[in-house]
Design a protein that fits this description.
single chain, mainly alpha, three-stranded antiparallel β-sheet, 42% helix
């Protein structure tokens, strides 16, 4: 009798370690690319939202000034709560601005807006957003330049 020898072939089940490592590396690279590209979109959305908030604050400041013979508030909190100054409190017809918990308005980076009255300048006040902690002043958002 003639016996035919069967060759035993080894069938590979699953993936090798190298294949798994290559797949993991590709997933990490794609994840990094997506994270990097969406970061710019998120920053752009924060900036646009902050600019919109600044426009609302400017309108509130103008309404306040109309009620107070052209005088602007000493702080942004005066738009939210009745000011301590007797003259301003007598004419106060607010709140001119609604905020969470009646606090000073904040930008999209959760930082309070910078508000300062100016005398003899081009504008009666400056309204700025720091764009987060540690941002150089040259990169702050200026309400008058938007």
């Amino acid at each position: 009798m003639n016996y035919v020898e069967k060759k035993h072939t080894h069938v590979q089940d699953g993936f090798t370690l190298v294949e798994i490592l290559i797949a993991a590396a590709l997933v990490m690279i794609l994840g990094g690319i997506i994270t990097y590209s969406t970061r710019g979109i998120l920053e752009s959305n924060k900036k646009n939202s902050t600019i919109a908030s600044m426009k609302v604050i400017r309108e509130a400041l103008n309404r306040y000034a109309e009620d107070n013979d052209g005088d602007y508030p000493q702080s942004l909190l005066d738009l939210v709560k009745k000011p301590a100054d007797e003259k301003a409190a007598a004419n106060w017809d607010g709140p001119y601005l609604e905020t969470k918990k009646g606090e000073t308005p904040k930008d999209s980076w959760k930082q309070p807006f910078v508000y300062n009255l100016t005398e003899g300048g081009e504008h009666p006040y400056e309204l700025l957003s720091k764009k987060g902690k540690g941002t150089p002043r040259a990169e702050w958002i200026d309400a008058w330049k938007q």
